Amino acid sequence: MPSGVSGAARQHCAMGIVGVCFLLIALPSLTHASSLVWGDSADGDPAQIEIFDGGTYSVPLGVEAPAHMNFTSNIPPLDDSLPTVVELYRVDASRDPSDPDYFFVSNVSYPGSALESSFAWPEAGTYAIEISIPPSVSLRDRIKTFFARLLFAEVAYADLGGPLEVLQFTIEESAPASLDPVIIIPGILGSAQHNGEWLIDPITHAYDNLIDTLAANGYEKGVTLFPFPYNWRFSNRTTADLLKAKIEEIKPICGCTKVDIVAHSMGGLVARYYIQSDDYDNDVDQLIFLGTPHLGAPKAYLMWEGGESDVDRESQLLRYFLLTEAIKHGFTSLFNYIRATPIPSVQELLPVYGYIKHVGSSAIPPFSTPDWYPGNLFLQELNANINDLYNSGVTISNFVGQTTANNTITTIRVVPPPVINPTALWGHGKPEGFGNSSTDQGLERGAGDATVPLSSAALVINDIQIIDSEHNKLPTTAQSDVFETLTGNTVSTLITGRDKVDVPMLTFQILSPADFYVIAPDGSKIGKDFATGLEFDQIPDAFYSGFGTDDEYITIPNPLDGEYQLITQGTGAGGPYTIAAGLITDATSSQTLFTGQTLPDALTTHILDVGIEGSDAAIDDVQIVASVGSTLVDINRAYSLGWIKSLGIKTSLTTLLTQAQKLKKQGDKIKLYKAMLTILKAVKKPGLVTQEGYDLLVADINWLINH
Model confidence over 176-230: pLDDT tens digits? Predict the structure, then answer.
């Protein structure tokens, strides 16, 4: 940086320009009146401030904003041949206070210049702005300009070279702007319980990147950042009541009156219902939708009408969990379970526009056509009152996903039933060829995010942004835009790689009375630690629901190929239990069920092989691992529980098992094992052994025969 005005005068005097030198020396000293204006606007973020020479100013560091100079009347621009240069420097006097170092930061625009400038303050400290005429302007023109300005009574103390003016000031870091607390509302299947406590998607981790990015950029978990997991099986009306309670819980924590909401998928309908309801307390500032099905999604028709799903991973995972629940509760089909329980959230995702056509016709009747479509009073009422959303005073942004593959179900071509029956299986028509993967299965696809059609998600046009993203990846794909929308700032730290929405998923679920844990092929474990009463948590990103719940299950994303062991421990009085194992990939799934008998505190080892090749998934049937010792324990416990009702039967089985253990040849052992099976079969009919005891011991003996 040049040494200043006095240095320029000395330079010209040394050149012998005496008259100029005399005039410069004779001119009175001038005060600095020019200023730098930095920031967006008076009420913008960052707020606009005016900076003068000698002042100290608090600003947010690292935040870029527009800037320009306000000149006093004696400062150029002079004319087109004499452009002014305005440069901002950071001043560092740490090396030598008498000769500080100057580090260029940015050029700054001024009225009349073509430059549009913006910059961020890199750090706190001393800064200087130099206003000068570039050295390329000839000395003749500088002298000419000097005298011209002098004649018009304009003071020009440095037109002959060097800075026209220098402003020096101090920048301090301002306290970070307070953030409205933000609530993250997940969609269907986006919450799960661990020992009774609801967590936000611990299965596919779809929201981990978004939450961690917000936390890395100023939000604080439990203070300004709150996930809102919930039981997604319930009606969105019920969940909206819980959302209101959550907001009331947050207000005292933040000392604020409003919160922001980021709502993914069905979570957006929850937020809408609250804001549009009579219970709304004017306590939402911003609402950001991520792939919300404002008009519903035809994919829901498959689940509601037939207890079926599309082939994508999310749909298969949803079907797996609900089907296992149906089995547990004694339902013969998933359709019956959804309708009888009921699970209203599935119905509340049904479209409220025309999307069905009959085979042989290209016409798609309007949704108002009587008896043509399954109803969805929830969405019909919500959209009939959508003006309540627009008039709520909430600032709305809508991020919509759209894939390039056009793989979203938009129309369903059905074979109509003889008589429309809204309560019957496929009561409004079964998709043509459904289940035949060599056809389109009656599912016509178009624009959307592979779950929600574009037309449904884009119903709300406020600040709408269409993003190349699949449905469950939207929270990650849009996270930087979400942060900027919430705060007005650019994200500085971006967290990725935490979600597991696009990897194979291995699932195990056990239906009481038993607890369990799983050993992966590499020996790592997850589940209940029977020895300590705590939990194993050795498999990365796996989730165990805990043993303090009726629905005990384990999910393992991106599982290893190989042999998995499941070790169960009987609880309560023992009895029949069921293990459901599933392996889900992009387009295929494999599932197997095993039903067995257990005794109180009895440990049973089960094995199954898991294999993934490309997009294909394979999982072998579950088998019980038995030994002579474990079978003997089962015989004794079955007798003590009354499952074996005769001491003679117990003695016969024990004797045969003991004799078989002494034999060396497997063929000879098998003869005695088969004799045990014959006894069990003979005494089962007259009721001398219960079904529980029979199933338990037959499984043990068959393992001994086959191994």
Answer: 667 899 999 999 999 999 999 999 999 999 999 999 999 999 999 999 999 999 9
Specify whether 618 is located in the same domain as 630. Answer: no
Q: Establish if 124 belongs to a structural domain.
A: yes
**532 domain-assigned:** yes
Q: Tens of pLDDT along 309-327? A: 998 889 999 999 999 899 8
Q: pTM of whole model > 0.90?
A: no
Report the C-alpha gap between 356 and 410 in whole angstroms. 9
How many alpha carbons fall within 13 Å on the CB side of residue 185?
Answer: 31
Q: For residue 502, give Cα distances in angstroms to 187, 473, 487, 498, 615.
A: 17, 9, 30, 11, 11
Given a contact cutoff of 8 angstroms between Cβ atoms, the answer to whether 562 and 609 are in contact is yes
How far from 28 is each of 23, 52, 54, CA to CA, in Å?
A: 10, 21, 20
Both structure tokens of 648: 């003679």
Q: How many CB atoms lie within 10 A of CB 193?
A: 17
Range of the domain at 13: 5-173
Report yes or no: 128 and 91 within 8 Å, Cβ to Cβ.
yes
pLDDT in tens, 658-671: 999 999 899 999 99
Helices (H), 110-166: 139-151
Are the C-beta atoms of 579 and 598 separated by less than 8 Å?
no
**Whole-number Å distance between alpha carbons of 32 and 25:** 18
